[in-house]
Structure formats: structure tokens, C-alpha cells
Design goal:
72% of the residues lie in helices and 0% in strands. The protein is an all-alpha fold and 178 residues long. The chain has one domain: Ferritin (Up-down Bundle).
């Protein structure tokens, strides 16, 4: 007979699954940030860096909650980093990551509620809102590239890729505080 998982163990499992996804997003977005900066797309690079900082904050929130529940936070991302993508593919790939995060986090939210862990549920509620903001940003960039092509990309050339404040994308857009 299979060992029955406790409610706390089920919550720790979904927190760690989310943390693994956040770690993958950090590596992905920061890698893209460096590549875009290297190709002189400073404005796009700066925004991706801010999104990456948001993901770092998310990973930390999840780790702290896992530790409170006496679990061990994972340090392994759930995906390999994709590199050397054309600009449009970067944003389409990121759109898929964020859609997956919103979908998964809604499922993880239900697990937390089912097991009466409303603190972890509150974390997932916040993450869902912030991932939705990232998703909408990526969709906006995709729309601009598809509608305007190289004209839009030309407006993104130059500018500081490193001068962005360290508060993250959501906070820079007037969203949740960092």
C-alpha cells in the first residue's frame, strides 16, 4: 500500500514545485537579459531583468514558507535555460512560461486551501497576480513585434540595460511592493 501524504507534505510539495519553476524562470529571464543587452536591446533587457528580480523574490518567499513548514527548499530549476532565441521567440517562450505558472499556481492554491494552509494559499494568490502582470507584459511585446516588426524593435535599441531599479517589474509598474 502506498504511503499516504499528509496535508503539510502536499503543501510543501507544491511549494517546492513552484520554487523549481521560479528558479527556472530566474535563469531564463536573466540569460535573456544578458543576451538582449549584448545585442543592444537595452530597454527590453532592462525590463527582463526586472521580471527576473520579481522571480527571485517569488523563489525566496516560497523557500521561506517551506522552511517554516519544516521542509527543504529545492535548489533545482525544473527546466533547462533556452539560449540564443530570436527576440520574438524569447517573448513567446516567456508567454508560455507565465501561462503555465498561472495555471499551475491556481492548482497549487487549491491544494493549499484543501489542506487548510491559508498562509501558503495567500502566497499563491499573490504569485498568480504578479505572474499575470508578467504574462500581460510579454503579450504586449509580442503584439508590438507582430504589428510593427523592426520598427518596434528599433525603438528598443540602446538605453541602459543595467540602470533599472532593483525593485522588480511588478513594483516598477505600480503593482505589489518589492
Amino acid at each position: 500500500m502506498a504511503k499516504k501524504t499528509s496535508g503539510k507534505d502536499a503543501v510543501i510539495e507544491v511549494l517546492n514545485r513552484a520554487r523549481a519553476a521560479e528558479l527556472a524562470a530566474i535563469y531564463q529571464y536573466m540569460s535573456q537579459h544578458y543576451e538582449l543587452a549584448d545585442n543592444d536591446y537595452g530597454q527590453l533587457a532592462a525590463q527582463l531583468k526586472l521580471v527576473g528580480i520579481d522571480e527571485m523574490r517569488h523563489a525566496e518567499m516560497l523557500a521561506e514558507r517551506i522552511l517554516i513548514l519544516k521542509g527543504t527548499p529545492t535548489s533545482k530549476p525544473d527546466l533547462e535555460t533556452k539560449k540564443k532565441q530570436p527576440v520574438l521567440l524569447i517573448y513567446q517562450y516567456n508567454e508560455g512560461l507565465e501561462e503555465g505558472a498561472v495555471r499551475d499556481y491556481n492548482q497549487f492554491l487549491a491544494v493549499c486551501r484543501e489542506h487548510g494552509d491559508y498562509v501558503s494559499a495567500k502566497i499563491f494568490e499573490q504569485l498568480i497576480v504578479e505572474e499575470q502582470i508578467h504574462l500581460e507584459y510579454f503579450q504586449d511585446v509580442i503584439g508590438h513585434i507582430k504589428d510593427l516588426g523592426n520598427v518596434y524593435l528599433a525603438t528598443q535599441v540602446g538605453g541602459a540595460a543595467e540602470g533599472a531599479p532593483a525593485k522588480g517589474f511588478v513594483a516598477s509598474q505600480g503593482g505589489a511592493p518589492a
